[in-house]
Amino acid sequence: MPGKLKVKIVAGRHLPVMDRASDLTDAFVEVKFGNTTFKTDVYLKSLNPQWNSEWFKFEVDDEDLQDEPLQITVLDHDTYSANDAIGKVYIDIDPLLYSEAATVISGWFPIYDTIHGIRGEINVVVKVDLFNDLNRFRQSSCGVKFFCTTSIPKCYRAVVIHGFVEELVVNEDPEYQWIDRIRTPRASNEARQRLISLMSGELQRKIGLKVLEMRGNAVVGYLQCFDLEGESGLVVRAIGTACTLDKLSSPAAFLPACNSPSKEMKESPLVHPPSHGCRSTHNSPIHTATGSRLTQNFSVSVPTLIYTGTGSGSAGKEGGPLKALLRQQTQSALEQREFPFLTLTAFPPGLLVHVGGVVSARSVKLLDRIHNPDEPETRDAWWAEIRQEIKSHAKALGCHAVVGYSESTSICEEVCILSASGTAAVLNPRFLQEGTVEGSLEQRIEENLPVGCGFCHIPYDELNMPFPAHLTYCYNCRKQKVPDVLFTTIDLPTDAVVVGKGCLIQARLCRLKKKAQAEANATAISNLLPFMEYEVHTQLMNKLKLKGMNALFGLRIQITVGENMLMGLASATGVYLAALPTPGGIQIAGKTPNDGSYEQHISHMQKKINDTIAKNKELYEINPPEVSEEIIGSPIPEPRQRSRLLRSQSESSDEVTELDLSHGKKDAFVLEIDDADAMEDVHSLLTDVPPPSGFYSCNTEIMPGINNWTSEIQMFTSVRVVRLSSLNLTNQALNKNFNGLCENLLKSLYFKLRSMTPCCLCHVNFTVSLPEDELIQVTVTAVAITFDKNQALQTTKAHAEKSLQRASADNEEMLQFPLELCSDSLPSHAFPAAKEHLESASSNSGTPAAQRATSVDYSSFADRCSSWIELIKLKAQTIRRGSIKTTVTVEKASPMGDGNFRNRSAPPCASSTVGVVKMTPLSFIPGAKITKYLGIINMFFIRETTSLREEGGVSGFLHAFIAEVFAMVRAHVAALGGNAVVSYIMKQCVFMENPSKNQAQCLINVSGDAVVFVRESDLEVMSAQQPAVNCQPSCTGEVTT
Amino acid sequence: MTSELDIFVGNTTLIDEDVYRLWLDGYSVNDAVALRVRSGILEQTGATAGVLQSDTMDHYRTFHMLERLLHAPPKLLHQLIFQIPPSRQALLIERYYTFDEAFVREVLGKKLSKGTKKDLDDISTKTGITLKSCRRQFDNFKRVFKVVEEMRGSLVDNIQQHFLLSDRLARDYAAIVFFANNRFETGKKKLQYLSFGDFAFCAELMIQNWTLGAVGEAPTDPDSQMDDMDVDLDKEFLQDLKELKVLVADKDLLDLHKSLVCTVLRGKLSVFSEMETNFKNLSRGLVNVAAKLTHNKDVRDLFVDLVEKFVEPCRSDHWPLSDVRLFLTQYSVSVHSLDGFRHQVLWDRYMGTLRGCLLRLYHD
């Protein structure tokens, strides 16, 4: 059944001069959707045309509505020759297709040209009349909501989390079609933009269908990526988590309701026993590649590491049977699905039961031409293979699910590395199935889950550990076993008890590789990969210990392949989890003990390391409460495990890590310095300088240990490209260069943002690519958020004393589920229920206080906003009314968004400036409440230039382009009636240059969720940033004569 | 390892006021970095020279991109590419249009033409202001001039509306435009002791009282042939000023005037005798200035004449400012008691402004 799309072209402004003779432009607009095109009249001789067109109506299938973008082309009419295109606007009308999102798209859009960039703006109004469609076999999936946010969106409640959805579509890349040889770069770029827009529409529709099949109504943690495979084609793939979401009318009214009727519960009675041994879960990377098929469809599967702690372990019996029970039950809910994966990184309280560790899998593939775009079987099969591997790794860790799951690729010529990683976990089945849960069992689970440490408890069987690990009793509840170190890809659970603050930890690594072709190349890469994984892991571990911390969250390891090297960059946020044991120090051992000076050198190094650890502990305020030894008991390694440990050691004998068991229960991490390499490693450990005072950084959503954010945020993207001197490159020199590049980049960020201190860089996201032989490109996107220092000190002090109680208090996310939390956890606690509630309430007072601080801060900002510039404009407006002969008023060209803004009563002059649209990679806006999600923003742009020097060189070119991309994102959000983008991510920034030809090209893909937020503190303030992008009469210089 | 590309783009455009100043002052990136290093920023922040270099480059690039918009400030407010808080926009605009005293003294009253632009080299050498900065300031003058030149209504308001400047700065620009349009000579050696502020003060008085816009509050007929403009002096008024000549040409009138002034001021001035002896010279000077204003050439020399005919004689006799004030007040007022003089309104329009100007010009 069709829908009706209505488009009105209102006006343009700031158009470029297209006619040199008159210095003016005769502009008209073509509106195209599918195969239908409408045109406006030509508005003669104006740079600010007022078309004020009729409503152009398109009657279309809702399938097309989902797939097709609305294409608006602004042209300059030319009587004698062909009309010149000024630029285009693509509008994704998807947000208009679900009921709760935007109802109208209306506003000023930048007119974009792939060669010239933004050339003026156009005011457009778009509406959709959609008729309900009850056809079961429909191809469209209108109404399924998409969120990039990797947690349950703030004003929703998860009724059921259905699980993993994935899809990919392939096509030929227009850039590589034969026709590209005869068409202009502009035409080629536009073909590509349009194709990708179409493909992502199609992809989203197909994913939506899968969600409907699963009886869900939304996709959360939607991640869509492009693989530019060059000659072999273009792949657009997406993953996400299907959910059934309920809109929260009022957060307090929430109760965990799972009463939706269950119908198709195909419970598989088959209970998988926990996998034994370590099928491909190795502590050592040296493991032959399995399943290499040297066919045209060449593939090397790379063995995978499971990142958990190393060390010896002891066993305990408690909780064993329960775990088995739990596993049984949750397995039944998840195992029926092919891939029990969630792309979420933060969870409703109670969902995450245990965390096993990071599981990852990589595979090296040779690309071949995609012969039949309609059957993308090869690519599907590749990913299925990897996901299967991830699943089995999770199983080996005694987990039935993988959370914080993500997939990525790195392509160089015809070689492609596919990577997937996630965190093995045990989940509470309550959220995963519709209805029927045995209440008694559930209660038993909850009882055994003390707040704040439950997720640290090992999910696997102590007696059949998948890998050697050093287990102790949980330092928090003393009941269950925990590993000594925990690595995860998820955000820090809100109830986790953390000591001190967290910090960004990065492992950086380069490996040279011989240039090779096809299979040889792929083999070389897959041979290198395990070493890289291992070294990245070692580096992370060392740096973690150097910081005096014991857990990593948000771990993201990126391996990038280039012509002659491989790069590895791992980022994570280190924290000290109170539930985990204190990390041991780092010991340095020399190989040649007889040399006196050498000994001295070693002891010097040792001292430096010890000093650094002490300094870091102070810096990050890590002072865990002393624990008496008796309670914990000394973990004596069992002989059986020790022997296995030794074996794994021998496998890695050529590596620097060795376990010195003689150090007893405090398992010191030993670095053996036996050659220059090891020396280099130790040095590089010590070269990481901590951020300057007043700065913290993390790559997770929130910084552990800081909870009093103020409202100032600054999202930014920074790109650096360095050229390596090609002369005798060694691994060491490469590593040093790469390290320097990353460190300098961070230093630059701290310097640039110094006016914001005290502040924290959150969600720091590094991306490395190797565009050419000797070029390394690093792209960083992050958000700097200010916080109140005084309050921070107070809360941390208070928290040091009562770390347990604090746990539930510091995140507003918790407020959504307060009742559930209390009802679940109360009976299980030693201290009285009322007290805990009170405690959490009182320590919660930090939140309102922070808001108060916010209001102060913000109103001062508002003062500044209403500075004299507004007064002048007001004045000017009144003055000109009488005396000036200026004529054109653009007032009619400014249909305000719609009713989305609460404060349309704001004085008209305040809205004359362009409304502020905030952008953040986080899922929330500090000091504000998200009241509405308007739909996802998913935009793809190409920019090309043949006058690189004239545009300020590569830096000038890319700087302008990224600024333009931000502007276009903001304009789309504002047109939807929003005032912020959350969960913003720049997924791709592919930059290619050819300075000798004075050319450059860049492709950028960004996405996020458009939202409306309201300041919790002060609604008045909103008037200063009302996103109505309209133009007041006095706006343009050109109008006046 | 060399940096090929190095950029930072914030959702809110970062503006560093110090770097902005360096950029406006026309320093190259390297000079700016050197100056920043000297300011001790490295010690304060613990940054390295490389970081500073990259930061400076970034800001310069941003300013370069913003410059196009700053040429038409309303564009800056309505553009979508750079998200800048209003207070920052105001700062960017204000600073961009702010000029150096030394520079403006060099070009005040000159024709804002290509010819003058060619002299910027010399001005730069003379004032020590970088050529780049001179060019920006000159282009600003010229741009503002071009936009408001033909416009009706209040000059200050027009400037404020089209360039969104603060009140103070808009007034200064009004003076610059007014001087450029009337080509008042300000560069003579005699006038070197005068500051831009002195001229701007006079310009404001003249705009308020001597231009067409000053005649009626609102022009009765907007389409009348009269140019309702603040930039041009009221030609009719200048013509009428000839009538004042009678004050010095008619001996009786002149004597009467003198005696009226002397009666009142006797004992009140420390320089009474000097005033008495000089009265006729001073009066002749002031009235002749008025009578000559019909010629463009003499209009240009207005300030030279005022200084020559009034400021210098008084100064050589060491009149204190208070005495000058008393004298000028009495000199103007006494005319009302001259029965034979019919041009009281005209006299007040002329002398009111001139009195203000002279008092401002009278200093060392």
Automatic annotation (TrEMBL), chain A:
Disordered: annotated segments: 630-659
InterPro entries in the cross-refs: C2_C2CD5, C2_dom, C2_domain_sf, C2CD5, C2CD5_C, C2CD5_YbjQ-like_dom, C2CD5_YbjQ-rel_dom
Gene3D superfamilies, alphabetized: C2 domain
Pfam family for this entry, one: C2
Limits of the C2 domain: 1-109
Protein name, as recorded: C2 domain-containing protein 5 isoform X13
Organism: Mesocricetus auratus (Golden hamster)
UniProtKB/TrEMBL annotation, chain B:
Pfam families per UniProt: FIBP (PF05427)
GO molecular function, one term: fibroblast growth factor binding
Phylogenetic placement of the source organism: Eukaryota, Metazoa, Chordata, Craniata, Vertebrata
Protein name per UniProt: Acidic fibroblast growth factor intracellular-binding protein isoform X1
GO CC terms in record: membrane; nuclear speck
Biological-process GO terms, alphabetical: platelet aggregation
InterPro entries: FIBP
Segments passing through the bilayer: none
